[in-house]
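Write out the 3D structure for:
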Amino acid sequence: MHARRRSIRFSGREVTISAALKDGLFGNDRKHTFNVSRIKDISNSEPGFSRPGRLTFTVEGASTEVVENPASGGDRVDMNTFCYNSLDTGQVRKLVAEIKKAMGTS
């Protein structure tokens, strides 16, 4: 799923969050992949009137350093966070349910 210059993918065992960065002439993508066994908590703050939704993972051993050079339209958050728009709310809810099921905490 793609939103706000970020994408998230779930393979059934691993979550990968990618962020578009301003880096050089054409930009670059930064990826963070982590296994569901390393996820300690999932927080989903759904979009409001003037703010994006935030799906945040607390991941054991993962950096919480904020991405300082997001591509235009991107969000300054860490690589454990997926920001999304209201049109993606239903898909994010399904994704959270799938990940929690894989974690064994449905």
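The longest helix spans residues 89-103.
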